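RESIDUES AND SHAPES:
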Amino acid sequence: MHNLLKVSHLKIAYGGISAVKGINIEINQGELISLIGSNGAGKTSTLKAIAGVLKPLSGSIEFQENQAPANSYELAAMGLVLVPEGRGIFQRMSVLENLMMGAYLRKDAEISTDLEKMYTLFPRIKERLKQLAGTLSGGEQQMLSLARALMSRPKLLLLDEPSMGLAPMMVQTIFDVIKKIHSEGMTIFLVEQNARLALAISDRAYVLESGEITLEGTGANLVKDPRVSSAYLGE
């Protein structure tokens, strides 16, 4: 298996307070890996450090077997793309302009083909192309955020809490899309509060507690692990 991302001894601190305490994570090409844990465990900090948005205290991050550049824009150009918590769309641009921003760094001739793909994946977006992105519902904004990231043709897609604040039906729609793009070969690193949903679609998962990885294994095994079910599945 081709190793795409390797995080070694990653430490993150905020003003002297240790948020992430020397964790190791590996992601191979084509895998869907999730990071689960309670609020404040350090999940988003980990994701931001990998995406180059947050400077770690120490440790190394290798992407495609090379030391990852520290800048988020260089990482994005290399194919490491983050869909942030809270969606981060361009509110005052139209839906179509947001999608085209996703393809901003591309020079190939297949952008229109990929737009058509997005319309198939997200029919709701197609109906609202001329609308200002800020006028969409929360679920539609989440779809747009995901579609915009896919327009950059990422090698590794980082998803931060995609189900956050969405109605159950919309959560299911988003997760169906995540499953579909993964089945087509997309490598995904998912940070998700809804542990049951995340583990159900993951090849492997890591459990983060107070900045440390306490468990790792296949999604199927962790769902059955009593430590996971009592802490995160409400059983």
